[in-house]
């Protein structure tokens, strides 16, 4: 069952050099209880997608041009600020890459977590120390009684990320969006944070949208994957299918570039993602694709569901009919 449906989402930014479509007509869904990985190179629109789900695209430059984001039968893009605030942090919460910029430096850990916790409690003045200590204990934080009185700068990067996770889970959300939450951490701490998220997903059936560059994390954590490229989705399938039977040449390229597939030299996908300011006819990946055909440079392919739970947007698997890119 889908818990969140993103339909034909298009997000633009006005910049000094013109208007760009950072997310260009994408559709996908998040199923109840799953971890969905979103992968793609830098600038592919992963963060813009996650900010859109939180309805946090900032105007006047940023704009959700069209589309719907359906949660509990309602389009959250149409909600009033007050209604969206109720959903944010309680039903859908977000963990960002750099906790230092998301935590408030002048508040203690207790105050920050309590700010989120009390939004939905009956008595906003109540002392919630006991409950918050319990949550920190669940996150394997040693001496939580001391930690709650500390300020962010007194904590290590891994500990700050745990505090962010605590803030994200205090209200038992249905959905957590984690935008590269471990990129700034060392490998051991990264492993700990990932297993915490895995536990949360298992224990409370929280659906997680996990954004990362790291296909190793996808293999370990996610059940399904969405591959983004230059604001579009090129492939969407189960993780097993993704690694066993990737269809899009871009997905194959990403998998080949994994350090585990090191064969004496580093495999990379040659070329760069074309700038969003460049107007491209046809498939956005055509300029780098090893299997490019004439039609790829002329016309956009459509998204095709080739089997259950496996969609791909590529002329190799396309008859020109179906949903557009
Ligand atoms: N506030 C903004 N103003 C102008 N352009 C923006 C803004 N935010 C994002 N963009 C543009 O939208 C595109 C997608 O950005 P986004 O941050 O979603 O990429 P990403 O996939 O998250 O990349 P990364 O892996 O580097 O985090 C980029 O080309 C970026 O320059
Ligand atoms: Mg990003």
TrEMBL record:
Topology of this chain in the membrane: Peripheral membrane protein
Keyword Transport: yes
Lineage top rank: taxon: Bacteria
InterPro entries hit by this protein: AAA+_ATPase, ABC_Ni/Peptide_Import, ABC_transporter-like_ATP-bd, ABC_transporter-like_CS, Oligopep_ABC_C
One example GO MF annotation: ATP binding
Domain ABC transporter, residue spans: 4-255
Pfam families in alphabetical order: ABC_tran, oligo_HPY
Entry keyword annotation includes Cell cycle: no
Keyword tags: ATP-binding, Cell membrane, Membrane, Nucleotide-binding, Transport
Subcellular location: Cell membrane
PANTHER family documented for this protein: DIPEPTIDE TRANSPORT ATP-BINDING PROTEIN DPPD, OLIGOPEPTIDE TRANSPORT ATP-BINDING PROTEIN APPD
Family under the similarity heading: Belongs to the ABC transporter superfamily.
Stated name of the protein: ABC transporter ATP-binding protein
High-level lineage: Bacteria, Bacillati, Bacillota, Clostridia, Eubacteriales
């Amino acid at each position: 069952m889908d818990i969140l449906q993103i339909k034909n989402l298009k997000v633009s930014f006005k910049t000094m050099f013109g208007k760009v479509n950072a997310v260009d007509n994408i559709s996908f869904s998040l199923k109840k209880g799953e971890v969905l990985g979103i992968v793609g190179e830098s600038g592919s629109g992963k963060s813009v997608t996650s900010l859109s789900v939180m309805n946090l695209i900032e105007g006047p430059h940023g704009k959700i041009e069209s589309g719907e984001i359906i949660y509990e039968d309602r389009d959250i893009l149409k909600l009033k600020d007050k209604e969206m605030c109720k959903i944010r942090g309680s039903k859908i919460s977000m963990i960002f890459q750099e906790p230092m910029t998301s935590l408030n430096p002048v508040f203690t850990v207790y105050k920050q977590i309590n700010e989120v916790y009390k939004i939905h409690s009956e008595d906003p003045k109540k002392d919630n120390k006991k409950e918050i200590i319990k949550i920190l204990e669940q996150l394997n934080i040693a001496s939580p009684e001391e930690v709650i009185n500390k300020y962010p700068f007194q904590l290590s990067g891994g500990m700050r990320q745990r505090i962010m996770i605590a803030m994200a889970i205090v209200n038992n959300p249905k959905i957590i969006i984690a935008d590269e939450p471990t990129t700034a951490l060392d490998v051991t701490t990264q492993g700990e944070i990932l297993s915490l998220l895995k536990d949360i997903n298992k224990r409370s059936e929280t659906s997680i949208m996990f954004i990362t560059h790291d296909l190793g994390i996808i293999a370990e954590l996610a059940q399904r994957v969405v591959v983004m490229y230059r604001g579009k989705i090129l492939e969407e399938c189960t993780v097993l299918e993704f690694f066993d039977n990737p269809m899009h040449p871009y997905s194959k390229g990403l998998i080949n570039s994994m350090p585990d597939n090191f064969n004496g030299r580093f495999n990379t996908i040659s070329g760069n993602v074309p700038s969003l300011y460049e107007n491209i006819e046809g498939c956005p990946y055509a300029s780098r694709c090893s299997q490019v055909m004439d039609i790829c440079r002329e016309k956009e392919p459509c998204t095709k569901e080739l089997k259950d739970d496996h969609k791909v947007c590529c002329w190799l698997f396309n008859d020109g009919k179906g949903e557009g890119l």
